[in-house]
Write a structure and sequence with these properties.
By secondary structure, this protein is mostly beta strands. It contains 2 helices and 41 strands. It folds into 2 domains: about 80 residues; about 240 residues, Single-stranded right-handed beta-helix, Pectin lyase-like (Pectate Lyase C-like, 3 Solenoid). The protein starts with a helix and ends with a strand.
């Protein structure tokens, strides 16, 4: 009896403590996750980091934890390396109205003077004085200068004629069989191996005239790699010697309300296995290649309400296994070759079952080349429905040859409810008949 009495009293005494612990999630206050905060970087005034270059930006970015926001104040920031975001669930935000500009510094380049094998961290170069510690660089040779063959890294130290880099090289760069070199090309704003990252209200200027070319697989003015559920919103990518916005090996990336122009490469480049992409309300124009280029295995994407104009090759390009995508409400005009181009692939590797609905495709082509839609083998199940496909000009100003051109070997196309008119040579040509 006494034992029972003492147990009950002990429980009564402990009850307020148990309730308090339960309300706190069972963990002491010191173990609770820190509340989201804003890390500010600015060129003057009060901020967590003061500075006007990529080092200051990276210092601030390295302070981020999930849930935080990196606020970049107005001004132009000189970029000698990428601003790398490597932590998930953060926002990187500039000052609204195009007032935050990340500007790529001038390009430098040096030949390798010794082979740079796979997995090394030391590069012997002819002109080490051109480089700085902390500078972003790419390693290339005549046989490895495109796609995934390029190593993108950072100069960690300089010792005589040797650049010590981190991370290591990803290929063998052989000066015995071809010239090899190092150049300071890198993505300017990049999210690597992250999820839930937002880039917002940032202008990225690649200073194209003073820089070397960089392939879109390894970088772009704005670049995502191994990323999921990320958002690029109200950003501008301009004048990069390469691609504007490129995202590779990603899932569910959204690009909303952005502008890309003046690229030597592609304006918008989703690719290398990037399903469920959404690109909406964007303006991509005056790029040397295509405005919107779907690379390999871009599936189940939505591309809506974009203005794609005056690009020097195609407006929209669809190719390798780029299947089951929806294109709706886009205006594709004034591009120098085709408005919409399906690239030639094998049957298994073609982009099947893409739907184009409610788009305006007009006034494309130049010098007798170019159509509204041009379909190479072997994509099939393509739906072209309720679009306006036209050349609205007159006389010699008209350049769009056909509204829809189905090349020999191309798969079946469903054409319904389209307004096709004004094309130089006709509305529809089917080489399979």
């Amino acid at each position: 009896m006494n034992a029972t009495f003492h147990c009950a009293c002990g429980l009564a005494a402990l009850l307020p403590v148990l309730i308090a612990v339960a309300c706190c999630g069972g963990a002491p206050r010191g173990d609770k996750a820190a509340a989201p905060r804003t890390v500010a970087v600015a060129q003057s005034g009060q901020a967590d980091v003061l500075g006007s270059d990529s080092k200051a930006l990276q210092q601030a970015a390295d302070m981020l934890k999930p849930g935080d926001t990196l606020s970049i104040g107005p001004g132009t920031y000189l970029m000698e390396n990428a601003l790398y975001i490597r932590v998930s669930d953060v926002v990187v935000r500039g000052a609204a109205g195009g007032k935050t500009i990340l500007f790529k510094g001038p390009g430098v380049k040096s030949l390798l003077v010794d082979d740079a094998g796979y997995g090394i961290s030391d590069l012997a170069v002819a002109e080490p004085e051109k480089f700085k510690v902390g500078m972003g660089v790419s390693v290339l040779d005549n046989n490895n200068q495109d796609g995934w063959a390029v190593s993108v890294t950072t100069v960690a130290a300089i010792d005589g004629d040797t650049l010590r880099i981190d991370p290591m090289t990803l290929r063998d760069y052989d000066i015995e069989t071809g010239e090899g070199w190092v150049q300071n090309t890198f993505p300017i704003l990049a999210g690597i191996d992250v999820s839930g990252v937002t880039f917002e209200d940032i202008v990225v200027d690649g200073n194209r005239g003073e820089n070397f070319y960089m392939n879109g697989c390894r970088g772009g003015a704005i670049y995502l790699y191994l990323a999921k559920d990320c958002l690029i919103k109200n950003c501008v990518a301009r004048n990069f010697n390469g691609d504007g916005i490129s995202f590779q090996i990603t899932e569910r990336v959204k690009v909303l309300g952005c502008e890309t122009y003046g690229m030597s490469g592609l304006g918008l480049h989703p690719g290398t296995g990037s399903p469920y992409a959404e690109i909406r309300d964007c303006h991509t124009h005056d790029n040397d290649q295509d405005g919107l280029f779907l690379c390999w295995r871009v599936k189940h994407g939505v591309f809506a309400d974009n203005l794609i104009e005056n690009n020097h090759r195609h407006g929209i390009s669809v190719g390798h296994k780029d299947s089951d995508n929806l294109f709706t409400g886009n205006t594709v005009r004034g591009n120098r070759v085709h408005g919409v181009y399906f690239r030639s692939e094998t049957y298994k590797n073609s982009g099947h079952r893409c739907v184009f609905r409610g788009n305006t495709v007009m006034d494309n082509g130049s010098a007798g080349e170019g159509c509204g839609f041009y379909l190479e083998p072997f994509a099939e199940g393509i739906v072209i429905e309720n679009n306006k496909i036209a050349d609205t000009r007159s006389g010699a100003e008209r350049t769009q040859r056909y509204g829809v051109y189905r090349a020999r070997g191309a798969g079946k196309v469903a054409l319904t409810g389209n307004e096709i008119q004004g094309n130089i040579e006709g509305d529809y040509l089917d080489e399979n008949k």
